[in-house]
Amino acid sequence: MADPRPLLSLEAALLRLRQGADARRITAQETVATFDALGRVLAQDVRSLLDVPPADNTSMDGYALRAADVAAIGAVLPVAQRIPAGVVGQRLLPGTAARIFTGGQMPLGADAVVMQEQCDALPEKPGADADVAPGLGAVRVNTPVVAGQWVRRRGEDVQAGATVLPAGTRLTPQALGLAASVGAADLPVLRRPRVALFSTGDELVMPGQPLKPGAIYNSNRYTLRALLQAAGCDVQDLGIVPDQLAATRSALRRAAQGNDLIITSGGVSVGEEDHLKPSVQAEGELELWQVAMKPGKPLAFGHVRSPGAEPALFIGLPGNPVSSFVTFLLAVAPVLRALQGMPDLEPPAVAMRADFDWPRPDRRREFLRVRVNSSGGLELFANQSSGVLTSTVWADGLLDNPPGQAIARGDTVRFLALSSLVWR
Q: Sorting pLDDT into bands at 50, 70 and 90, what band is 269?
């Protein structure tokens, strides 16, 4: 029997999902060591208390000098001092140079650095000036010199008082390095999203158990749990719930206690005989959607009451493994962002060339499993069925194809990298 409900666009579904998540936004904070903050979300701005770099320094090994002292190529200057990184040199006397190494602080009076590859080191001349350090010799400059060359200016990266990382930033390795560069040993972060996960269905068994006739291994439990962990969540895994109304309601009540979100897979298709829908309706509220996307048409959204606390959000994903995977990336990941007050970002699409034909598109928006080939185009996995989990391992991205849009070899299409969908 055809479903009479109109299809909901992915954009409309995402808007309603985010609105629900905004009402349940996480505000609790904790302080963690910067070393241990990878993947966490900043609760407050990180501001710099110092200039970075804190003083003018050199970006090259070479010689610090005054540009005006090199009137012509081949000028020879006595070397007055040696300045490795971490050492503060003396004021540079006119007509002299300082041997300096990458990161070394520029001595007062110097305004340029010449790379060592463009110089000749010369032995010390007899009777050298007493102000020149003995044993450092002289340097012949074999290139024109311009004031400011190879000098990193104080504060050119970060100025004191500047916000280097705004609240809501997910902390990447490079963000941790930036925080460390301004001296932040600890960072204020939001507590991790708490997500309960369970599966329903008497046909499900875990790997390692005997596979009876009619049974299948529960791959979605592994995929969804790992996706939640990759997104920085604390996961309460409630396992496989028996296909019984009382057991399902009991699992929902346990899942709602102390968690922000409940994720399930399967049992949300129209006309399906299961206990999940009546259980959520009894323990909270539920909307069943038919989203105009392929894979991933059925989607359930609502909440489950928790005595003495805010209700936990509920998202029921399709049971087919590819549908569950793709729907998580496109619908659940934005909810996790909204829960943590992160910016609402569209998936980062890249325009690429299709190296295949797709002559019979679906009326829904399609997300095709593709990967980048050696010539820089996209090749298509041969079997786009929502049950073919091997396609998600073979692919490195999704092709976002508009409804009814045929694709011919050479067309420009929208590519979404899988890694960016988890971490955006």
A: low
- Please indicate, yes or no, if residue 4 is contained in any of the structural domains: no
**Region class of 93: left (phi > 0), else alpha (psi between -120 and 50), else beta:** beta
| ∠ CA 111-117-120, rounded to 5° | 85
CA distances, 217 to each of 175, 198, 243, 315 (Å): 39, 14, 16, 22
Region 202-222: mean pLDDT is: 88
Of the residues 339, 370, 390, the one at which a domain ends? 339
The total domain count for the chain is 4
Q: Tell me how crowded residue 313 is: count the other CB atoms within 10 A of its CB.
A: 25
For residue 420, count other CB atoms closer than 10 A to its CB.
15
Residue 315 CB coordination number (10 Å)? 23
- Same structural domain, 139 and 106: yes
User: For the whole model, what pTM was predicted?
Assistant: 0.84
- What would the pLDDT profile of 156-198 be if each residue is shown by its tens digit? 999 999 999 999 999 999 999 999 999 999 999 999 999 999 9
**Residues 141 and 93 grouped into a single domain:** yes
What b/e string do you get for 363-397 counting C-beta neighbours within 10 Å, with b at 16 or more? ebbbbbbbebeeeebbbbbeebebebbebbeebeb
State how far the Cα of 190 lies from the Cα of 355, in Å rounded to an integer. 44
Are 214 and 325 found together in one domain? yes
Task: Kindly report, residue by residue over 113-124, the tens digit of the pLDDT.
Answer: 999 999 999 986
